[in-house]
Amino acid sequence: MKELQEQRRDILAIIKDPTLTHEQTMMALSSAGRDILELPGDAPRRFYELKEKGWLCDLNEGRVTYVPRYILPDYRIYIEKGCAFLRLDPPKDLYEATMGLLAIYHHVPSVTHFPVYIGRLDQLLEPFVLKEIRENGEERAYTLIKGFLRHIDRTVTDSFCHANIGPEASLTADLILKAERELQDSTPNITLLYDPDRTDEAFAIRCVQAALDCAKPSFANHRMFLSELGEDYGIASCYNGLPVAGGAFTLSRIILARVAYDSTDKEEFMRKNLPAAIDAMLAFMDEKIRFLVEDTPFFSTSFLVKEGWIRPDRFNGLFGMVGLAEAVNDLLEKEGTQARFGSDDKADALGLEIMELIYNRVQAHENTYCPFYGNRFMLHAQVGIDSDTGISPGTRIPIGEEIPLYEHLRHSGRFHKYFPSGTGDIFPFDVTAEKNPRAVLDIFKGALDVGMRYISTYTSDSDVIRITGYLVKRSDIEALKKEQQVVNDTVVLGMRSVEKSRVEERKVRKL
Amino acid sequence: MLTAPVVKIIDFSVVDGPGNRSAVFLQGCNFNCEYCHNPETIDPEGRPESLRFLTVEQVVDRVGRSLPFIRGLTISGGECMLHEAFVYEVCLEAKRRYGQDFSCLLDSNGSIPYDRVLPVIDGVLLDVKAVDESAHRALTGASAAPVMAQAAALAKEGKLTEIRTVVLGNCDEAEKCILRVTERIVEAAGADALRNISYRLIKYRPKGVRKEYLKTLKVPGDKEMVRLERIASDCGFSPVVIV
Fold this sequence. Notes:
- The complex is a heterodimer.
- By secondary structure, chain A is α/β, with parallel strands linked by helices.
- Chain A has 20 helices and 15 strands.
- In chain A, helix 8 (171-183) links the parallel strand 4 (162-165) and strand 5.
- Chain B folds into two domains: 1-124, Alpha-Beta Barrel (TIM Barrel), CATH 3.20.20; 128-243, Aldolase class I (TIM Barrel), CATH 3.20.20.
């Protein structure tokens, strides 16, 4: 815990930072205030000991969580019943529906205070879009949809906000794609819940075209998510599969690379250090969730709970990990082997062995606050944060060591199965792909066939680019570098990641 | 055992027909186009360094390694129809192993009738290089007549997948190609057929072209390419792509 003087210095630095907007200053101050608190007990102490060593990380949640990290409200309730707390009647037309949703989004919290999930927009809005087109023409419907999306980008000033479309094609989804291509905004992030048997191919191709143009939507393996989470799931934040009307209480992560660096050999890593890190994190998550559910008023007072938009029994703890590649490479190097994760069978086998250990140990742990997932935590391939240097997201092959496309996709497919609460890979394409989006779709289909859960793309000349999971405008990064304020607070994360994680050096696939 | 001189096999290509495909390039061509950008593949007796004589099995094995990321294969050249029997066997075997939906296309110059291979292929990406007999002979060293006949025959069978024309500085010939081939397709298969045929307008680029032709061949302007794109679209081809 920091001394009072140090805390005051930190707070003054936030207030004096010229690159922060007023809203960003407020948010930073709220985190600084929260971080003065300590969660009592052995589990938090042990966790923060390992955090000091760099093994574990609380992902900016601090010691005390007073609101679930990710919330996926069931927005159908608004469409059907309205919202009593916000005095909103069920919407009668597209204007009311979009205005009402914007009002509700403002009141959906998360770890960043912004909504991380804004619903399956096509399903929510399709009846209103059809009515609008019938009564006032398509242009009017388009204007409303575009205005709605632009409003989200300018007020949800954080790129961890996610909309879902699909699996079926719809007029609404097409209007959304058209608007996004025109707007070139980073928010909201969008995912197509893709199932080749249910998603019309021409629509899927239009999604690819949009992705090559504005980096969204990403493609989620709908069948895979469906088999694990049921029909009522959504993709939130970066790429996190979670139950709708639920979400995630908390997410912590193990930095596997650092646990490996501190281990003398594979034996010590597998038998002692990794299990110790896992256990410390599990205990900390237990305590955090208990505090959130039992000691904070959120689940007893929030209108989201009272009006049935979310239910505590549909929340889960997310057990995150990063830096598998670096851990594997380090452990093999200590054995005198030069095998690299992604390029050598031996390294990949060790990667899978580590994943099995994590999976089994986390599966063996029971947390009764998580009945939706059998009282177990879900694994999460965390995408990294801006302070990570030389640590690859989740189980990704490091930038600069990418392997040929098909092999790379097959490699990803072997690791994605462990992560129902989210993982994904990014494959930027050369601009020639724009001439043949169907080819990109073929590759995506193949990717799902080999077990990939989630895949994203953009082209080498896009303004909106995917940093690790979230989107940022290149032009915003340039502005921030010149110490100008930018409205979206994720830009600063993007800028640091571009500098530290070589995002711009990601292998562009030439077709 | 049946073999063919394979110059190279690429695992993914987005320019050799619809979707993502594996492309197989065979040695030897019966045309000698001035703008050919890989002239080392023209001479049937030529042996570029990468050339290997491969069996049908070897080719089909290799192509299959790209599944499930490809929707089919395209056999190109040179002129693939100089190896008609090999082409037939490769397509037959590929469909036998990977299913009838695995699409087999030929990228071909239309000089040799496709009758024999037609049952095992899904379509042809047909080069239409020039319309006037003299222009065609000057550019390729061969007659234009069979090309138009093949265009009509393929369209009638529903197996004309794409027309491809390399556009040179003076775009008149390309424009004539679009109009004439449209006429022939409409005569043979009706105007509706055009909707399922793509047109690829390839901007001439000097890369790889033999030195002796570099001076006379000119690169067309972007505006001209767009004009041709509109003409092809107006004729009814879909989609029309400029590359």
